[in-house]
Amino acid sequence: MEKTKCPIPVFIPLIVGIVAVSFSSIFVKLSDAPVSVQGMYRLLFTILFMLPFTKNQWKKAKLIQPKQWLLLFLSGTFLALHFLLWMGSLKLTTVASSTIILALQPVFVLIGAFFLFKERTSSASLMGMAVAICGAALIGWGDIGISAENLLGDLLSLFGTLAVAVHMLIGQHLLRHIPSFFYSLVVFISAVLVFAMYNGAAGIPMTGYGGHDWLIFFLLAIIPTVFGHVLFNWLMNYVSATTISVNILGEPVGASILAYFMLNESISLFQGAGGFLVCTGLYIFLKTSRVPDHIKEASVPQNV
After folding, report:
1. Whole-angstrom distance, CA of residue 234 vs CA of residue 56
2. Which candidate, 39, 298, 64, places its Cα nearest to that of 191?
3. How far apart are the C-alpha atoms of 265 and 1, rounded to whole Å?
4. CA–CA distance, 226 with 246 (Å, rounded to integer)
5. Cα–Cα distance between 258 and 289 in angstroms, integer?
6. What is the pTM of this model?
7. Cβ-count burial 262-284 (b if 16+ within 10 Å, e if not)
């Protein structure tokens, strides 16, 4: 379907969105609250921001089949798992390593689409995937020399990326039948419930945090979510999902620069080389993959 013309220059919302999502990892590191609490309140505040627009949404609930309700809850579960693992990785490894590995999610989405939906892609895209994966392996290899904790953080980011890829693949299936706003609302509510059950079972307090932590919870909902991923979703009305996917590769760069100035985190030679390979490989992959638009839209990070 042909895209309509964006009412403002496209580069403006792209830059705003990339800068906004780059702050996500910074905010996580600036709070001492458990990541399961950060993730829960980030999504809860996002739901509260969505409430004014939900007046007619629940009328659509009667059209949802029991199997679809189960998949909605499953999608929310994997979204919560993604936050738990990826945000947890930031407590163990650097922003650069964690966000570069997270950028591999389009690769995992396409791999899942191949096995689930028999979607195929070009040899050039496969080469790009291989380059990107080698870059991620180089980052992990370099972090082995720093500490076992850093390597564990890299692995958590990798598993968090796998979790969000599953979340996106379920969403790709459901969004063929369910309006996107209703899908996001129910998935966010499901993820909040999963976090609440996890925190309760683990004995993690959900109240009693200081003003600084509550500010971080609020900023996580506003800046990377509303001014980041919601903005990207709006922009897909005017540009292709591939355009957004390629440009969002700026997130690891932006996050690493912010971490250098705000957290005093330096970038090692392995991280720099690995990050270059990941971004180069993903650029090749995203520009050459011959897959349907709904698969490419699933590869755009929606809720990181």
Report:
1. 20
2. 39
3. 44
4. 20
5. 31
6. 0.84
7. eeebebbebbbebbebbbebbbb
Q: Per residue in 196-225, pLDDT tens?
A: 999 999 999 999 999 999 999 999 999 998
Mean pLDDT of each 10-residue bin along the chain, 304 residues long: 73 86 93 96 93 81 89 95 95 87 79 72 78 79 71 91 88 82 89 97 96 96 87 74 67 85 86 83 73 49 49
* Residue of 145, 161, 154 whose CA lies nearest to 97: 154
Give CA torsion, residues 91, 97, 101, 103, to 10 deg.
Answer: 100
DSSP 143-167: HHTT-HHHHHHHHHHHHHHHHHHHH
Tokens of 213: 């932590």
Q: Which helix (H) or strand (E) holds 37?
A: helix 35-50
CA 276 – CA 183 distance, rounded (Å): 35
Give the pair of three-digit tokens for residue 140. 């992990």
Domain range summary for the chain, segments of one domain joined by +: 30-298
Question: Which of left, alpha, beta for 300 (phi over 0: left; psi -120 to 50: alpha)?
Answer: beta
Task: Please report how many Cα atoms fall inside a 13 Å half-sphere around the Cα of residue 168, on the Cβ side.
Answer: 27
pLDDT tens-digit series, residues 242-264: 666 666 677 888 888 898 899 99
